[in-house]
């Protein structure tokens, strides 16, 4: 699930950003689900505000971007761009299933991770509109044994100010996340984890909030979540490719997901019973832009409820984050589960909706999102430079080794395997580094640049506007 991530210069959840999470706390363990991703598309500070005007959308540059990523094996997935009900662009690249050599199409379904929270928040607001639930209702109405249950409200679950322990942060999470979990088992894990903070005292992302909201919806409606999702959202908006959980008939346009190290490695699937309404929905970008258009044009909930969702306190709305683009402000969410990464965003100015989902990501999702809005608002970004060079054996050998820093105490090993240069933070999976010149190597997905100084036996790591020097 997605932890603190600023798209455009801090990329997730998103969005899949495990490489240097220990260093700058801006990445996410990709094997977990849906840690919070706070989003900044592109914000100019200290500069004059640029007034942007929407124009007729030209798909040719989007085609060029998608083609470039496809040719360089940089990204697999699908994107959709819409203005209101009008679909302006949709395209899929890469494989739905590499083993079967099955190419992705715009109907291919993917896990959307934490974008599921926007669906769940919408269902909760609808339930409140109907008088079946109250925003200030105590969690103890449903769960008396969770720490501070009598002080935690439905709103605090929605905006991540409850202090409920996130079960996806458990140290043993990866030993049980692919196995079916009962309500009792997950709630017991929340109880065992204890309170993270006093309710309302701060905001901190917790997947448990939306797991609990899933159970509460089922109790109030006396219907399962899959039924509610279909009845209250999918049917009214005609979302034909959106389901709770991985579709059972995998022959019907269902994707696998992958993690790139030296090649695309198949990722395991988290059991649907673990993330529930926090991250278990499957969909397509085309359905996601329909959903966001329906949500923001009051086809699902009324204007009062929508304004509640859009209130940002402590960086969080109710199932939404704010997404600035220059002087504009949009709303959306990111997702990341297993090898899937996603982002969906709505801007009132132009009534634009953009959604993308990747099942194999070796490039920064935010760069794609920025590029898309740049095309919509006449602020074009250059096509990415995905080129790389080959280092000589001598140039490669001279940078291999162990690099350490004192503060923070961290070690990154630089190795070579099958002709590829790999970096690895101790205790984390390896990642491939691609040479841009003989001294500079990059990892584009996470916006990482490493510059080697052979004479000083050191490397300087740049990410998210921060710098770290490590010595050999």
From TrEMBL:
Residues annotated as domain Beta-lactamase-related? 77-365
Q: Name one Pfam family in it.
A: Beta-lactamase
- Tell me which InterPro entries the record gives: AmpC-like, Beta-lactam-related, Beta-lactam/transpept-like
Q: Entry's Gene3D superfamilies?
A: DD-peptidase/beta-lactamase superfamily
What is the protein named?
Peptidase
Source organism per entry reads Sphingobacterium athyrii
């Amino acid at each position: 699930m997605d932890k603190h991530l600023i798209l455009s210069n801090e990329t997730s959840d998103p969005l899949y950003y495990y490489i240097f999470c220990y260093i700058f706390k801006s990445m996410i363990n990709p094997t977990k689900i849906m840690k919070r991703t706070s989003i900044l598309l592109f914000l100019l500070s200290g500069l004059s505000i640029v007034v942007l005007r929407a124009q007729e959308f030209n798909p040719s540059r989007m085609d060029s971007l998608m083609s470039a990523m496809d040719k360089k094996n940089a990204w697999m997935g699908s994107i959709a761009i819409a203005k209101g009900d009008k679909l302006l662009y949709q395209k899929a690249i890469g494989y739905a299933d590499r083993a079967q050599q099955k190419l992705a199409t715009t109907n291919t379904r993917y896990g959307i991770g934490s974008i599921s929270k926007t669906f769940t928040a919408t269902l909760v607001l609808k339930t409140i509109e109907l008088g079946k639930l109250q925003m200030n209702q105590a969690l103890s109405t449903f769960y008396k044994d969770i720490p501070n249950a009598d002080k935690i409200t439905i709103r605090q679950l929605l905006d991540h100010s409850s202090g409920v322990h996130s079960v996806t942060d458990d140290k043993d999470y990866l030993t049980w996340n692919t196995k079916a979990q009962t309500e009792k088992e997950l709630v017991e894990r929340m109880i065992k984890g204890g309170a993270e903070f006093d309710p309302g005292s701060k905001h901190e992302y917790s997947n448990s909030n939306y797991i609990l909201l899933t159970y509460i919806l089922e109790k109030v409606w006396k219907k399962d979540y899959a039924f509610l999702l279909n009845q209250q959202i999918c049917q009214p908006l005609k979302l034909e490719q959106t389901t709770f959980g991985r579709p059972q008939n995998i022959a019907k346009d269902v994707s696998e997901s992958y993690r790139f190290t030296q090649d695309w490695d198949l990722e395991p699937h988290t059991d649907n019973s673990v993330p529930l309404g926090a991250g278990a929905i499957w969909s397509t970008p085309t359905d996601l832009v329909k959903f966001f258009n329906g949500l923001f044009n009051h086809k699902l909930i009324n204007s009062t409820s929508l304004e509640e969702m859009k209130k940002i306190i402590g960086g969080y709305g109710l199932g939404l984050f704010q997404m600035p683009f220059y002087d504009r402000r949009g709303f959306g969410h990111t997702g990341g589960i297993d090898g899937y990464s996603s982002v969906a965003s709505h801007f009132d100015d132009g009534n634009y909706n953009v959604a993308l989902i990747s099942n194999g990501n070796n490039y920064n999702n935010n760069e794609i999102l920025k590029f898309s809005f740049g095309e919509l608002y006449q602020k074009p970004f250059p096509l990415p430079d995905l080129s790389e060079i080959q280092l000589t054996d001598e140039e490669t050998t001279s940078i291999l080794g162990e690099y350490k820093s004192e503060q923070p105490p961290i070690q990154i090993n630089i190795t070579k395997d099958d002709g590829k240069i790999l970096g690895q933070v101790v205790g984390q999976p390896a990642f491939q580094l691609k040479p841009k010149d003989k001294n500079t190597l990059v990892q584009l997905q996470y916006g990482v640049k490493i510059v080697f100084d052979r004479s000083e036996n050191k490397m300087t790591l740049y990410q998210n506007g921060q710098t770290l020097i490590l010595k050999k």
